[in-house]
Structures are given as structure tokens and as C-alpha cells.
Specification:
heterodimer; A: alpha+beta; 5-stranded antiparallel β-sheet; 5-stranded mixed β-sheet; 12 strands; B: alpha/beta; 5-stranded parallel β-sheet; 4-stranded antiparallel β-sheet; 8 helices; elongated
């Protein structure tokens, strides 16, 4: 069964997806703020630069260097770049010693990409009427600061969203998870065949309750149908047995009154055989429901298994011999269990009967009783064709007969009776490979003990 | 003529039982009601009773236990639709001699009743059973046929004893399985047949007249009239 895991729950996944979308939203929002601010700040810087250039370009060339020094000293924030260069590009005045190559002297502000300047800094150069080149720039300190703030916001809010999302997801999933586990627990008996068990429903009326309610409704219907089918089967078997018995009685009477030389004798005998076969089938069907209906432990008493197995061996030895088989009983240890002796004998009898029936002449059937830690185990080995692995479950069902076994007579219900007896005792019945042949194991201790 | 009382409230079943027993030469009387059945059962006019488990007024269990407490010990064959093992045990404990579940084959019912009647007639302390030249000593556990000793396994001994005690009667496979092995399920035809054919090989030696007869569609009989 799939073990419920936290990170597989729908709630947890939903919370995570929600967190991721939220984080993406935050990043987008902050990015948008940054972008808009950057555009606005750049415009501001450009206006400042152009203003400064206007203020300086009309100053007489002779006093310009002096004037620039003054302006420079007034720039307490240290955000302006100034430079005055000769027409050949040699430095005359200002805090920029070398004319940046990527700023053409055309009076249009643009970004300073030279190394030594912060990204986003703006600058312009202009050729004065004297032929000298005036360079004005504005550092991107605000922009850099803003970028830093936004980046930190993204990191911190992202981390917070992820941690909070995981925590919230786990917290939200835990409740439903516990209830799913409760449902799973409650469904175990149903899987084990207790069709009367139901899933728990809380009073919340949420989706889990709805699903549990639907499942319970389906179980009600399955149980009802199963009972209906079962009782129909029982009733059919019961109702048909009486007329069939009468039919057989009539046939038998006719056969008794038919003269030995009559040509119809063979046909009558055949009809009797067929009727007996039908009757045996219905009887077996009724027998299964009878065993299934029986109160557990009603007929239980101490049963000496060794004696029972030996008795079975003795009962079947002549039949095995007639089939040309060797029947070996290996039951050395005395052991006693609480069981219904008659039913257990019937089950063993069916198992050995099957083994004898399906094993070809010259083969061997072994009945082995061993003592395990949990209790006695009966194994029946034959050297017959065995049962293919994919059919081993199915052969325990009513009416199932192996693919290759249609030529062998039988009701097809023998193993179902054994299965019913095993169910009543809570014993484990398993088919296996005897290599070659079939191995049938009946663990004579309650399965529930090992759980 | 042996008189049999059939206490059965289902008319069809009652008719069926009466017809089968009539065919076998019994004189049959039927009672459909528990009270009436009880009155006639204790009258002392009958050799045996077939008794339905469930009857109007007085039920089968009560009838048989009243019969036993009043000292009527004629054979009672209980017939019931209740198949549960506990029901069988309860029926036998109340004083029934045999228990047959519905639906049943008429000849099975008749065979069981004949065996019961036979048992009731048998001498209580027989130690030597004899059928023609076949002898079975129950004390020394020895069997002989015409002076020839027959070595028998324990099961074969029980089987032969059962056949000899009921010689001439038809014994169905179910009856044999119940009597010898003591179980009440359907063991399948072959299983009992092979035990009988083994016994037959020992009892019917070469050149001897066959004593164990197979009755087709029914069962076996020892030295039955052909």
C-alpha cells in the first residue's frame, strides 16, 4: 500500500505552488518599481547635467577653470563629474582627468560605460565656442542604492515566502494526512474481506468526508449485492436440489425396473451419473456457504493433528494405489490445535483427493506435517502438472478449474471448500511450486497472530 | 408386516417416503402433525419412525425425547432440512438413531431405515458373525471364508463387520463413510469404492462365489439376493 507522505498531499503542493506564484509576483513588482525609478532618475540626472552645462557654457573661457573649481567645491555630495579639456583632449580643469572615449561632444547626455564609474552614471560632453571640450557627469549613487535595496528586498521576501510557504503547507497538510491515515487504517479490514467495515466520517463535511461517504455508499451497495448474489446462489442450490433429488429417484426407479438386456440401460446409467454430478455440485455450493455462515469457533475443540493426518493417509492410500501413485505420510510430531475436526478433515481430504486426482500414474504424493514456531504446518506435495503462478489465486475461487484440467471430473469446488475452512479457522492457505508439481501449504495457526 | 410411522408435515416428502417404503414391503402410516405423531409413536404399534425435525405443534426433538423417556426404543430416523453439524448432534443426542438431511434420495432413506431395523433386531452380544461361508470373529479379530483365513487391515475389518452386520441390505457410500470413518461430508464416489474393491479382492477369492455386490447408482451389499 502507498504510504501517505507529507510532500505528496494536495494541500502541500497547492501551498507550494501558491508560494512560488506569490514569490514571482513580488519579484516582478519590485523589478517594475526599480525600472520605473531608474527611468525617472535617469531623466532627472540628464536634466541636471544639461542645466549645469548651460550654466557653464556661457562663462568666459578665461575664468572657466576657476569657475569649475568653485562649482566642484560646492558639490558636497560629490556626485558631479567635471572636466575641461583642450580641443586636442588634454586636461585643463575639473575632477575628471581624462576625457571618456565613449561620450561624443554632441551635447546629448548618455550613459557612462567607462570603467571607474558606477553603472547607470550619466554624462555629456560639449564643444564650447572656444573649441575646448566641457564634460559634465552625474554619478549613479542613488540608483545604485536603490538597486541594492530592491535586491535585498527580493532576497529577504523570497526567503520568507519559501519558508512560510513550506511551514504553512506542512501545517495545513498534517490534518488531512492524519485523516487519510485513519481512512487507510479503517480500510484494512475491508481489504481483508470484512465487507461490514466502513470508513470514518468526521462532522466537518469536507471533501475527505464526502469521499469517505461515497466510498461507504459503494461499500453498502457492494455488500448488499454480494449478499444478494450469495443468497441467490444458496437459494438456487437449495431450490434445485429437491427437484434434482426427485429426478434422480425417478431415474433410479426406472433403472431398477429396466431389464438387464435393455438397450436403454447404458443411457439410464449415464443419466444417473450426470444427475449425481449435478447434485454433488449443488451440495458442495451449499456446503461452502454453510461453512462461511458458521459461527467461528462454534465447533472448535482440541484436535490431534498427527492422528488426523495419518487417518487421511490411510483413507487415501488405496485410491492412490489404484491411480498408480505412492502416497507418503510424514507426520512424526504430535501436535494439538484448536479447530473444527470434521471440517479440517474435510479440507485435508479435498487437498489429498485433488493431489491424487491430478497426479499422473507413477507419481508421488507426500503429506508432510511439520512444527513451526507459530504452530503446525501441513504441506501436500504432488508430482503432477502443478498450477501456473498466475492461476494460484484463482483456483481458490468457486468453480475455477485450471486451463488444462477440463478432462478431469470434479465439481471444481474442492479447493473452494478448503479455502472456506481455512477462512473459518483464520489459517493461511497457499499454493506453491513443488518443482515439479504442486505444493499446497496450510498453516494451522491464526494468521491474525502474525500481524 | 413391519409397520413404519412417517411423521412429516410436507405432503410431497411424506408421499415419497411412503411410496418408497411401501415398495419395499413395509406398511406405512403417515402423521402430518407433531401432536398426532407423538401419540401414535408412543402407541407401540410401530417398528420404526421417520421423524421430521420441524413439525407443527410438537417438534421432532420433543417427540423423540418423549419417546425415549417413556421407554419406547424403536429406531428413529430423523429427517431435517437443517444441515448444520450441531443440528445432527442435537438430533442424535435427543435419542434419534440416525440423521438424514433434506433433500435426500429415497433409497438412501430406505437403506438407512433398514439398517436401523436390522440393528434393532440383532442379538446384542454377538461375537461371531456368519454369512454363508464367511466368518468374522469379533473377539480374536479373525476372518475366514470357507476355512481360508483372510488377513484384514483395521479399516477392512471395520468395513467387513459393517457389511456382515447388515448383510443383504443395500449400504450407500455415504452410510459406509459415516459408519466406518465417522464423517458426514461427501467424500466422492471413488474413495469408498477403492476400499471396497480391496476388501472384495480379499473376501472373494478366486473360484469363490462373489459375496460383495455393487448396486449400481446406489452402493454395496453383502450377499444380497440378486
Amino acid at each position: 500500500m502507498l504510504r501517505p507522505e507529507l510532500w505528496r498531499t494536495t494541500t502541500f503542493r497547492l501551498t507550494l505552488v501558491f508560494g512560488a506564484v506569490f514569490a514571482a509576483g513580488v519579484v516582478t513588482l519590485l523589478g517594475l518599481v526599480y525600472f520605473s525609478a531608474a527611468v525617472f532618475l535617469t531623466q532627472q540626472m540628464d536634466q541636471i547635467i544639461v542645466g549645469q552645462a548651460h550654466a557653464l557654457q556661457d562663462v568666459a573661457p578665461a575664468v572657466l577653470p576657476e569657475r569649475m573649481r568653485q562649482v566642484e567645491t560646492q558639490d558636497v555630495r560629490n556626485v558631479y563629474f567635471y572636466g575641461l579639456f583642450s580641443p586636442g583632449g588634454a586636461w585643463i580643469a575639473g575632477n575628471v582627468r581624462r576625457l571618456p572615449q565613449d561620450v561624443p561632444a554632441n551635447g546629448i547626455p548618455r550613459e557612462l560605460r567607462e570603467p571607474g564609474f558606477q553603472p547607470g552614471a550619466r554624462a555629456m560632453a560639449e564643444r564650447l565656442s572656444s573649441g575646448e571640450i566641457l564634460f559634465i557627469g552625474f554619478d549613479a549613487k542613488v540608483l545604485t542604492g536603490l538597486r541594492l535595496i530592491i535586491l535585498q528586498s527580493v532576497i529577504w521576501s523570497g526567503a520568507l515566502i519559501i519558508v512560510a510557504g513550506l511551514g504553512l503547507g506542512a501545517a495545513l497538510s498534517l490534518g488531512p494526512l492524519r485523516r487519510i491515515q485513519a481512512v487507510q487504517q479503517a480500510s484494512l479490514p475491508i481489504q481483508d474481506g470484512d465487507l461490514g467495515a466502513r470508513l470514518p466520517i468526521s462532522n466537518r463535511g469536507d471533501e475527505i468526508d464526502m469521499l469517505a461517504g461515497i466510498a461507504n455508499g459503494m461499500m453498502d451497495e457492494v455488500e448488499r449485492l454480494l449478499w444478494a448474489v450469495k443468497s441467490v446462489g444458496d437459494n438456487v442450490a437449495h431450490d434445485l436440489r429437491t427437484p434434482l433429488t426427485r429426478l434422480r429417484a425417478q431415474l433410479y426407479r426406472v433403472r431398477q425396473e429396466t431389464d438387464a438386456g435393455d438397450a436403454h440401460l447404458g443411457m439410464l446409467d449415464q443419466a444417473l451419473v450426470e444427475t449425481d454430478f449435478l447434485l454433488a455440485r449443488f451440495k458442495a455450493l451449499q456446503r461452502i456457504s454453510e461453512i462461511d455462515r458458521r459461527e467461528r469457533r462454534a465447533g472448535f475443540a482440541a484436535v490431534r493433528l498427527q492422528a488426523l493426518v495419518e487417518e487421511i493417509g490411510e483413507l487415501y492410500e488405496p485410491l492412490a494405489e489404484e491411480h498408480g501413485l505412492t502416497l507418503v505420510t510424514e507426520a512424526d510430531m504430535p501436535c494439538e490445535i484448536q479447530a473444527d475436526r470434521e471440517l479440517l478433515f474435510e479440507a485435508f481430504s479435498n487437498l489429498v483427493g485433488n493431489a491424487v486426482k491430478f497426479t499422473p500414474a507413477g507419481g508421488r504424493v507426500r503429506l508432510v506435517l511439520t512444527k513451526r514456531a507459530e504452530g503446525p504446518r501441513l504441506e501436500i506435495f504432488d508430482s503432477g502438472p502443478g498450477v501456473p503462478e498466475d492461476e494460484r489465486e484463482a483456483v481458490l475461487e468457486r468453480f475455477y478449474r485450471g486451463r488444462n484440467r477440463n478432462q478431469t471430473p470434479g465439481s471444481g469446488l474442492g479447493l473452494s471448500i478448503v479455502a472456506a475452512v481455512a477462512r473459518l479457522h483464520d489459517f493461511r492457505l497457499a499454493l506453491g511450486d513443488a518443482m515439479p508439481g504442486l505444493k499446497v501449504t496450510l498453516d494451522c495457526w491464526p494468521v491474525a497472530m502474525g500481524r | 408386516m413391519t409397520r413404519i410411522l412417517v411423521i412429516e408435515d410436507d405432503e410431497t416428502t411424506s408421499r415419497e417416503i411412503a411410496a418408497e417404503l411401501g415398495r419395499r414391503g413395509f406398511e406405512v402410516e403417515c402423521a402430518a402433525d407433531g401432536r398426532e405423531g407423538l401419540v401414535r409413536a408412543v402407541s407401540g404399534e410401530f417398528a420404526a419412525v421417520t421423524l421430521d425435525r420441524m413439525l407443527p405443534n410438537v417438534d421432532g426433538l420433543t417427540i423423540v425425547s418423549v419417546m425415549r423417556t417413556t421407554g419406547i426404543d424403536i429406531p428413529v430416523l430423523m429427517i431435517s432440512a437443517l444441515t448444520e453439524v450441531d443440528e445432527r448432534v442435537r438430533g442424535l443426542r435427543a435419542g434419534g438413531d440416525d440423521y438424514l438431511t433434506k433433500p435426500f434420495a429415497s433409497e438412501e432413506m430406505a437403506a438407512r431405515l433398514e439398517v436401523l431395523l436390522r440393528r434393532a433386531r440383532a442379538l446384542p452380544r454377538e461375537t461371531l458373525l456368519t454369512v454363508k461361508d464367511l466368518e468374522l470373529d469379533l473377539v480374536t479379530r479373525e476372518a475366514r471364508r470357507g476355512g481360508r483365513a483372510i488377513a484384514l487391515m483395521p479399516t477392512e475389518f471395520k468395513l467387513l463387520e459393517f457389511l456382515m452386520r447388515n448383510s443383504g441390505e443395500v449400504l450407500t457410500r455415504t452410510m459406509i463413510f459415516e459408519a466406518i470413518w465417522g464423517y458426514h461430508f461427501d467424500p466422492g464416489t471413488n474413495l469408498i469404492d477403492v476400499h471396497l474393491s480391496r476388501l472384495r479382492r480379499k473376501v472373494d477369492g478366486p473360484g469363490q462365489e462373489p459375496m460383495i455386490r455393487t448396486i449400481r447408482g446406489s452402493g454395496y451389499a453383502l450377499n444380497a439376493a440378486s
